[in-house]
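User: quick one, sequence for these tokens?
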């Protein structure tokens, strides 16, 4: 590319789209990272990086830093996620044939802490103007509706009364109720074979070869009326607003787990290990939350699994940190389908070889954590390849975004699926296996974790 990489960021009126970023989830090729109606949504593509293998994170880091090094940046907002931005998705395994990728969109709409903005990114030599950026957004969304309002309301006009999150939630409920036309088929392993794999994993743990193993399984959903990626993302963003809803190149989902979030020199993570299906509380004494605390926090198995995940993350993050703190006791994360044992970790980053590590450098050190692989990592990874009979592709790999200033948010691609054709979607779910694991219970847990995607597809679980 001979032309310079250039970006223009201008403010938007956040009040003109009170439904937040889910209002912009109207194209099936949209790039998406949202939580609580905030985040980033991207349209179009002007550049892409792809790689496989063990060096995929570092190769992507070098490509991105080179791209933005001499970029011409005009930024009237100046907060994390403004200026040059790339969305990314990385394969779980270093031996996977699935291509990890960074995608630079043409247009980004952002919303954070009450601020809204529009960024146009280009390699063209023409003028970058606010009017041109707004026109480019309109072109990307021409003829589509934004949660009951026309496009003009979101990019410069007044908002209509009665719109917003409540309308989006109503639409999500109505759309789910009107579908229910899909069907499910077995993935790489039948339920019986997958439970046998869990039993084999428990047997390996009892030999002392490893402490924990995370085993995943897949199922295939067929939707005769066609897969609507934008509708899936809207459903997830509204129903699971405490999670991070992501969409990158056919990978869609809503993850409750943050691998690493970097803002300036501060890094944060949310670690989950220990799961309870909310349906298990039906008919139980006491409040549902009391039941969750009793079963999760009071379980030696669940606490052991959680402690392994926390130790895995903090050990790998320590060399990059000058200070770190984590919850002394995990808390109960309440989601519509499950409860989790969760812990938040916060670290102040230190300089390594003269500079603060980038988020991709941190991911290279952190991934895969015990929460999605097991421990020891090398032993668990080899056993996963032996028992799963499955290439996870981007499932349980890092997914998120980064900007030119070093900020970024990278979740673990959980509670998600890959759109494989206009009518088929492959869903993934996994469970942490420890010495006390029971195959039938782990299978039931996978169905609870499939539920967000099945709901978004309108398929009863």
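Assistant:
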């Amino acid at each position: 590319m001979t032309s310079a990489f250039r970006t223009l960021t201008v403010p938007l009126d956040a009040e003109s789209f009170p439904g937040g970023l889910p209002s912009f989830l109207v194209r099936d090729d949209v790039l998406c990272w949202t939580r609580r109606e905030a985040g980033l949504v991207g349209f179009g593509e002007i550049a892409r990086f792809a790689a496989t293998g063990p060096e995929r994170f570092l190769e992507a880091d070098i490509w991105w830093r080179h791209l933005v090094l001499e970029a011409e940046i005009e930024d009237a907002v100046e907060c994390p996620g403004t200026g040059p931005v790339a969305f990314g998705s990385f394969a779980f395994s270093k031996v996977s044939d699935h291509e990890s990728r960074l995608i630079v969109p043409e247009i980004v709409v952002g919303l954070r802490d009450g601020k809204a903005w529009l960024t146009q990114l280009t390699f063209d030599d023409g003028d970058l103007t606010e009017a041109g950026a707004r026109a480019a957004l309109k072109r990307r969304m021409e003829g589509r509706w934004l949660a009951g309002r026309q496009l003009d309301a979101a990019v410069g006009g007044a908002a209509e009364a009665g719109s917003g999150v409540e309308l989006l939630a109503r639409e999500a409920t109505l759309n789910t109720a009107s579908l229910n036309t899909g069907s499910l088929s077995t993935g790489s392993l039948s339920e019986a074979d997958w439970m046998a794999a869990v039993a084999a994993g428990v047997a390996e743990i009892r030999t002392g070869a490893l402490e924990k193993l995370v085993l995943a399984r897949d199922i295939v959903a067929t939707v005769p009326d066609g897969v609507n990626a934008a509708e899936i993302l809207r459903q997830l963003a509204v129903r699971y607003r405490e999670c991070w809803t992501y969409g990158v190149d056919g990978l869609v989902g809503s993850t409750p787990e943050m691998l690493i979030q970097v803002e300036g020199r501060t890094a944060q993570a949310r670690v989950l290990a220990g799961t309870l299906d909310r349906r298990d509380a039906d008919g139980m004494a006491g409040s549902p939350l009391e039941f969750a605390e009793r079963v999760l926090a009071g379980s030696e198995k669940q606490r052991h699994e959680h402690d392994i995940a926390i130790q895995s993350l903090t050990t790998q993050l320590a060399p990059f940190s000058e200070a770190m703190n984590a919850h002394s006791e995990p808390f109960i994360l309440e989601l519509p389908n499950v409860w989790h044992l969760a812990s938040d970790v916060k670290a102040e980053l230190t300089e390594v070889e003269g500079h603060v590590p980038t988020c991709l450098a941190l991911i290279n050190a952190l991934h895969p954590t015990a929460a999605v692989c097991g421990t020891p990592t090398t032993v668990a990874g080899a056993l996963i390849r032996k028992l799963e009979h499955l290439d996870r592709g981007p499932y349980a790999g890092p997914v998120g975004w980064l900007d030119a200033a070093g900020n970024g948010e990278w979740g673990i691609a959980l509670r998600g699926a890959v759109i494989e054709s206009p009518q088929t979607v492959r869903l993934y779910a996994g469970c942490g296996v420890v010495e006390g694991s029971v195959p039938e219970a782990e299978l039931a847990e996978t169905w609870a974790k499939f539920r967000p995607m099945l709901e978004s597809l309108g398929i009863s679980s």
